[in-house]
TrEMBL record:
Organism: Capnocytophaga gingivalis
Domain Outer membrane lipoprotein BamD-like: 37-187
Pfam families found in the cross-reference section: YfiO
Domain of life the protein comes from: Bacteria
Keywords, in A-Z order: Cell outer membrane, Membrane, Signal
Coiled-coil portions: none
Protein name per UniProt: Outer membrane protein assembly factor BamD
InterPro entries: BamD, BamD-like, TPR-like_helical_dom_sf
PROSITE patterns hit by this protein: PROKAR_LIPOPROTEIN
Length: 266
């Protein structure tokens, strides 16, 4: 393309941009809901979600209950989602499901509602309110659409969220061991192992339960030593049977030898 052609192309693009901006400003200031809807949809279709959101905000309430309401509310929610404003998107998806529970988009929207909270779920050490919400919503999707289009992704997200909650529970129990509150640690590890039999943290939980029981026995009054060393011995035997090749076995074996020695001396 020669220089003259490039200049003409630039002028066309610039003119289009000013025209688009002018239509948007006109729609934004107008009281004409049909105009706002038309421009909002055009902007949405072009991927200009930021400006389309400002217009949807002004017309969605008007159109709910009217023929265009379903599409308007869906595009409004989807605009938030595309802009990665997941809390706001989740709220609008919930609003959509309340107003249009029989919509053809209901399956997708229910899934996306759960996915929004999944994407808002923080690391395990923080408050897990969003994690629990995501689990409830994704489980509802799985139950309602057992052959749904998003089933595999929903199941994978549920597994990831459950692992995060297990990690949090494990670290809480491990924290008791670290601060030498061994009785609380043992109880927490017991509960963790019962509630999460298939957890990826099971091996570590069983090892640290043994460690807590061993330390509790070592620091017990004379009258409780034998009973507690016997309990520690039982924890070792269960751990060694379950994970004979564990990386923790060297440390566990050292504790076990001392446990046997202490029991023989009592």
């Amino acid at each position: 393309m020669n220089m003259k052609g490039k200049v003409l192309a630039f002028i066309v693009v610039l003119s289009f941009a000013f025209s688009s901006c002018g239509e948007y400003q006109k729609a934004l200031k107008s009281d004409d809901y049909e105009l706002k809807y038309k421009v909002a949809k055009a902007l949405y279709d072009k991927g200009d979600y930021n400006r389309s959101m400002r217009l949807w905000e002004k017309v969605v309430g008007y159109y709910i209950g009217r023929p265009q309401g379903e599409d308007a509310l869906y595009m409004y929610a989807d605009s938030f989602y595309k802009r990665k404003k997941y809390l706001l998107a989740g709220y609008q998806y919930e609003r959509f499901l309340k107003n249009y529970p029989r919509s053809e988009k209901a399956e997708e929207v229910l899934f996306l509602q759960g996915k929004c909270n999944f994407l808002e779920s923080p690391k395990y050490s923080l408050d897990q309110d969003a994690t629990y919400k995501a689990l409830d919503q994704l489980q509802e999707y799985i139950d309602r659409y057992p052959n749904g289009a998003y089933l595999r992704e929903a199941n994978n997200m549920v597994l990831e969220l459950l692992n995060k909650l297990q990690h949090k529970s494990f670290e809480i129990a491990k924290g008791y061991d670290k601060i030498r509150d061994y009785q609380a640690a043992i109880k927490s590890f017991d509960n963790f192992l019962v509630e999460n039999p298939g957890s990826t943290f099971r091996e570590e939980a069983m090892y640290y339960r043994l460690h807590s029981a061993y330390e509790l026995a070592k620091n017990s009054i004379k009258s409780k030593e034998k009973q507690r060393f016997e309990e520690a011995k039982n924890y070792y035997e269960l751990f060694s049977r379950t994970y004979p090749e564990s990386n923790f076995m060297t440390k566990a074996n050292r504790m076990y030898q001392d446990i046997l020695k202490k029991i023989s001396e009592l």
